[in-house]
Amino acid sequence: MLSREDFYMIKQMRHEGAYIVDIATQIGCSERTVRRYLKYPEPPARKTRHKMVKLKPFMDYIDMRLAENVWNSEVIFAEIKAMGYTGGRSMLRYYIQPKRKMRPSKRTVRFETQPGYQLQHDWGEVEVEVAGQRCKVNFAVNTLGFSRSFHVFAAPKHDAEHTYESLVRAFRYFGGCVKTVLVDNQKAAVLKNNNGKVVFNSGFLLLADHYNFLPRACRPRRARTKGKVERMVKYLKENFFVRYRRFDSFTHVNQQLEQWIADVADKRELRQFKETPEQRSRWSRNICSVTGYRLRYQLLRYPPCVLGQLYRGWW
Fold it and tell me: Of 27, 77, 153, 221, which is least packed with CB atoms within 10 Å of its CB?
């Protein structure tokens, strides 16, 4: 950084008509520096250096805690304060800041699956107008891991039966089932997930057994493992539900969704593959074929005279 005297000399020489190259030679700096200083109305203030005298006795301890992946300055501040540190928090933050580039990255390595192997499931919600009234629309997104094709099912509730119906509809839409279905830790699918020991909802296991897929749950607080479907939830909110805000009914919502997926979403180019989901879907023809599945709450749609036959057939 140049001194105040250099700053005023640059201004004076330029005012007298000196060329920038001559000013740079006289001052002993680059032409780029001269141009930068000419733009300043006042001499740039020097950055004050933090004195680390009070912190110096604790630097070895701080470095040890950083090596143990403890980067919370408040935690470290409380620890060194108990050890006799009398300085402030800002001094500690100033010391830690340039070391943060050494912090291990939390970036998730993208895991690409084979065609017909994995489907990722997630829910989103948005407020729109249905039948003339503002209401919350829950929508389940089921995304094929390989092709990035997805199916969306809008429903008034985000419960177990609508979760299962969304998967049944997705399998029917894709023309078959996959080998694994990845879900988050919603109660409709997962009752408990403790250090990898997963207890699945019995209803979800019945669905998995019927379609012969392997249920899988994300690690708690690690939802990024199903990043493909989470990006689709955001994509829907920022695209479909921005363009379409009014619907006659939930049936109308789902009709519009399927039409929009066919016309727009399946034809978007995936930058990492230089292909569209529609093009990549040609490799997913080996997904397993499916048969129908009757949901518990669907029995309520039938009159009592046929419930007995449906009940026996369902089991």
Answer: 221
- Please give the average per-residue pLDDT across 294-310, as a whole number: 45
Contact status, residue 135 vs residue 128, Cβ threshold 8 Å:
yes
Mean pLDDT, residues 89-99 taken together: 87
Asked if CATH classification 3.40.50.300 holds for the domain at 118-314, the reply, yes or no, is: no
**pLDDT at position 288:** 53
Distance CA 227, CA 141 (A): 12
The better pLDDT of the pair 37, 280 is held by 37
Contact status, residue 262 vs residue 147, Cβ threshold 8 Å? no
For residue 2, name the pLDDT band (cuts at 50, 70, 90): confident
Beta bridge partners of residue 138, listed in sequence order: 125, 155
- Is pLDDT above 80 for 287? no
CA-to-CA separations, 198 to 66, 205, 216, 284, in angstroms, rounded? 33, 12, 9, 29
The residue type found at 132 is G
The DSSP symbol for 43 reads: P
Distance, CA of 146 to CA of 149 (rounded, Å): 8
Beta bridge partners of 142: 121, 151
Q: Which residue type occupies 57?
A: P
